[in-house]
Amino acid sequence: MSETSKEIIFSSAIIQKRVQEMAMQISADYKGRELVVIGVLKGAFIFMADLIRSVSIPCKVDFVRVASYGAGADSSGKVVLTKDIETSICGRDILIVEDIVDTGVTLQYLVNWLKERSPGSLKVCAFLDKRKRRKVSFEADYVGFTIDDGFVVGYGLDFSEEYRFLPDVYVIKNDKKDSK
Ligand code: IMP
């Protein structure tokens, strides 16, 4: 592992408290219904696991994976689906769960792509939101924390496949973020 320096911005305890709050909100909004939760691999897997174990409504789960081709750490280029869902979503309540919204390109693409399959409803839940970095118009329906610019790792988020396993979230303190 490289010697990249990083600084904690959200502790595990703060994250767990916020996830509980989000789960309560989602449970209230979907009371009496069943959700199909679609996680965006790989970054969302830890957040999604915590979230679905905290909601009080029944959930089915599925995953998508996308590759984005753009400039370095940004995914401001072309988005390509590399793993499709295996669940029929027609007429069902769908919640996309993502680790972080940055330019908004990935989620805008995913929302448009899923809408073509005629879900009953479709919302997006993002653990983190870098609002100031948007390149396309996109708003998540549920957001854990809004952060400023800076590359963050931990709680599922990686820097060149490192740090996903960390229970806290850190901001990388140097410029060594050439790849996601
Ligand atoms: P967007 O399409 O620009 O919104 O990018 C979303 C994707 O970029 C996320 O799913 C992450 O994979 C990646 N990403 C953006 N910012 C960060 C970050 O700070 N840390 C780790 N991954 C990031």
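^ inosinic acid complex. Residues 43, 68, 75, 98-106, 151-153, 157, 180 surround inosinic acid (CB under 6 Å). The radius of gyration is 16 Å.
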